[in-house]
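Structure ticket #2291
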Amino acid sequence: MVDESELKYWRDAGHVARRTLEAMKLELEPGKTFHEIIESAERFIHRHGGKPAFPGTIATNDLAAHFTTNHLIDGVEDWQGSMILEKGDLVKIDYGVHIKGHIGDNALSFEIGNGNNHTEQIKAAKEARDAAIEVMHPGTPWWKVGAAAAQPSLDAGFQPIRNLCGHQLKPWELHAGVSIPSYACGPDNRGFKGEVEAGSVYAVEPFNTTGKTGMIENIGGRESSNIYRVTGNTTSKKARAKGQLKPLGAQMARNLEERYGTLPFAERWAYPMLGKPFPDADEESLQSKWNALVKKLISIRFIETYHALRCIDGGTIAQFEHTVHITDGGPEILTVE
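Resolution: structure written out below.
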């Protein structure tokens, strides 16, 4: 339940998130790199009074979500697409902003070059988001929200993505327990029991695809997204007390806790921390130390990682997203200008 005194933070975060999305839409043109767009978005967020709630992400064509660049600006592992925007690409940009932990999360899809190759799919994804939000009144069962989200895409000849969901938001929690279906899961689906609750905040983000299965899959290794998150399952202090971390590792872990809480963070944000204790180390040495630190922090369940995601059968994917606050009278969209 959102406290009335916190609503200003939620609304301000949503406002900055929407302004970021609209500003970055203007930068989506042939020749721009993933990295340029991502870093521009994160700078915009900081300039306008927010902090990234997660690393800026970008995905084109069959790449679905969960990719941000690393400090070396490497390509997406095991994906053959280009890291440079090209005419005809269907691009998804997804940005989140937090203000004192209160999160605005939004996304849109856009065709590079406006060639009208993806117009119907983009329209269907946007209508899917709006249809889901329209039925999100207190007491609406989640399966009805999923059915509403699915229909615009199905009517237009596209498949809703079934294994990517919207999610509840709480302060400092990007995925706060409740998942929101974007397909007709039916009333007996155990994964989507329950109903829309007044006073809650949700990120509503239907995806659709030109593929036949309506499914996405992990690509690359477990760190292929370049995105990490402190799990909250243990703390740097506890890990040090148990002998799981040496002093330097514990200090690095504490820095991550203090900077990001349990919100996702980018490799390129955290990697420069190694420069202070190892000022004379070369890139090869620093990379080795980073890999060892990450491996250790994963092994003790201090952090978790994310895979990059793509359509399982190569379909082109579109997505739209808003953050909504549920009032007694219905949904209030927070990610508006």
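Closing remark: The mean pLDDT is 96.
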